[in-house]
Amino acid sequence: MNKMEREPRSFVPPERSAKPRKRGMTAVIDYGPDGFGWTGERGVADLLDCAADYIDFAKIYAMNALLLPKPVVRKIVKLYRDAGVNCYSGGILFEYAYRHNEVDLFGDHLLSIGFNSLEISENYITMNDNERLSFIDRFQRLGLSVIYEFGRKNPEQTMRMEELEALVTTLSNRGVDHVIVEQSEIDMTASKAPEQLKALAAAPWFERILIEADPYRFPKQHVGLLQDFGKDVNLANIAPGQALRLEGLRRGIGRAVNYSMLAEEGIQV
């Protein structure tokens, strides 16, 4: 190459880590036909055409994997998987199967749809340690990876860091890579024991945690989470219609963050 020639440079957005990543992950919650982002098969296809690079996980909301026609869910799950997005069933569906003693039928249903992951939660049920691990082993033998959600929908006390740390350690040793912290737990702790959230952010195992946000409080609450935990915090419960804007917030784009990408470049805003 002639010394006077230079490689052409691309015009690129503010830098952020690419998939697969351990920090800065975004998990959307697919509500189906809903005002937060009309998904369905064609909606998911459009979403992924625009934002697949910024979405790491997609949860099929609550009971939708059972309520929607199976062929529709199967197509949606395949779209996510083909785009490199880990699509999983919501924890409420597991809790429903648990309550009705139909966990085997539940597992068969997930496999027939094409899921390779599921969420186990204890929002309204309570399992002992042995029972919880037994279910994890059971699903892993079926070829399903497990994402665990920590916390209750209606917590009675702030979360205890030592309990969460012990759980993350135990689950990690059983092949569970990610633990979601329920939104209600975050809200109560932020209100009554904010120092606990600072301890959580500083924990060496924090990269395994996904913090649930509240789609109804976008973007204000999400900006607060980025400020409290850093722009590379793993966030869950992101509505499909918010995924691209959240990526912008992470990169300093938008009024909600005062276009901080410009300030980082030394430009006065």
TrEMBL record:
Its protein name is Phosphosulfolactate synthase
Q: Name the segments for region: Disordered.
A: 1-23
Q: Which domain of life is it from?
A: Bacteria
The residues the entry assigns to the signal sequence are none
In the record, the note on similarity to other proteins reads: Belongs to the phosphosulfolactate synthase family.
